[in-house]
Amino acid sequence: MNGVHDMGGMHGMGPIQPEGNEPVFHEPWESRVFGLARAMGAWRKWNIDAFRYQRELIPPADYWRMSYYETWLASVVELMVKKGLVTRAEIENGRPAPGSAKNSPALTTEKVALLTMKGSPANRDVQVASRFRVGQEIRTRNINPEGHTRIPRYARAKLGTIDRSHGVFVFPDTNALFKGENPQHLYSVRFTAQEVWGAQAAAQDAIYIDLWEDYLAPVS
Amino acid sequence: MADHEHSHEDSHQAPPSDLALRVAALESLLIEKGLVDPAALDVLVDTYEHKIGPRNGAKVVARAWVDPAYKARLFADATAAIRELGFGGLQGEHMVAVENTPKVHNLVVCTLCSCYPHAVLGLPPVWYKSAPYRSRAVIDPRGVLREFGLELAQDTEIRVWDSTAEIRYLVLPQRPAGTEHLSEQHLASLVTRDAMIGTARVDASESQGAE
């Protein structure tokens, strides 16, 4: 979606403010939200693409106002409700609905190391024909889906060169909407900075963007 | 960790006081429903506060500096090479290393959200996730680097890596001159988080090291 999250190339955001000796979490509640998101993710009722999309669905004015982990909190709540893990009434009352089932946590202490050390690979070992080869010129498609997508607005309808092939990966646009993984080839595509931003960019600079096959068209 | 100790990013206010209460209420509801184990949350938080951080990435960089065969493996298959040192997994499942040279400087960003190589750098700093960095890294990388105190030669090629997929990028910074006598361990202590994102050089003059 053409949302406020898609920030590449926007102006007026002010200076970058690095923080010396920055703590991993600034408040204890941030660390709990981080943990809750991972622990609830372990129920596998949603995927990383759906989680990203949920954050994109936060209304723009709220997205700007909220801190990072507030957006996580809001998104986890929405996904839990959407997937029936909790009800809004339970969240409002702060206690389980009478007679509701008692579960057994999906993420236990023993499973944390497995979760962090194994991760969730997004590549898929399936045979899918590849339409592009390294070194080939492509043009990104001019697409503006209302749903989730990982092609930034600044990279649409641009000429680039396939720089490397990463293999076959889950396609976020369908996966985020629970419409299937639709695995397809993923490439690192090199764009000259001038192709993207015009003459104001330095002639030798480049931007590399990871793009799936459905975002690309051959240059005829 | 009171608010006043840390300057938050420009675009957000200190969280309202009821936020901590809301999170605590939600956590206790989820515990009561048997959906989460608070001890697992403790372990997870401890992992990212104390075990998984930029020290991991610094060890990868130092090894690549002293061992040409390792460096070759790092560029052939970064995920496997990083796994050799015992790192990998969540948000590091698919790693690619990119090398800074006198001619080429690499910079990593995620313009769409906050993608970052957790397995080697830990969780991202606030500035990396903030609108100023995400918006400008792609359109004005030289201005961004200048803000970090890094002035590159006019003819340096800047390569910005926008992490739009599940590939995670680690910058291999240039080894500073005059460090030939240093041990791998000492070299690792020089490598900062920012140098592995691409917003800094490694400076041999002070042992700043990755936090």
List keywords for this structure.
heterodimer; A: 220 residues; alpha+beta; Cyclin A, domain 1; SH3 type barrels; 8 helices; 5 strands; 31% helix; globular; B: 211 residues; alpha/beta; Nitrile Hydratase, Chain A; two-stranded parallel ribbon; two-stranded parallel sheet; 11 helices; 4 strands; 45% helix; 11% strand; disordered N terminus
The assembly state of the depicted protein chains is heterodimer
Helix content of chain B: 40-55%
Order of helices and strands of chain A: HHHHHHEEHEHEE
CATH top-level class of the largest domain in chain A: Mainly Alpha
**Unreliable parts of chain A:** none
Using the coordinates shown, work out and report the CATH topology of the largest domain in chain A. Cyclin A, domain 1
Most strands sheet of chain A: 5 strands, antiparallel
The spatial strand order of the largest sheet of chain A comes to 4-3-2-1-5
| Helical/strand content category of chain B | alpha/beta
> How many domain modules of chain B?
2
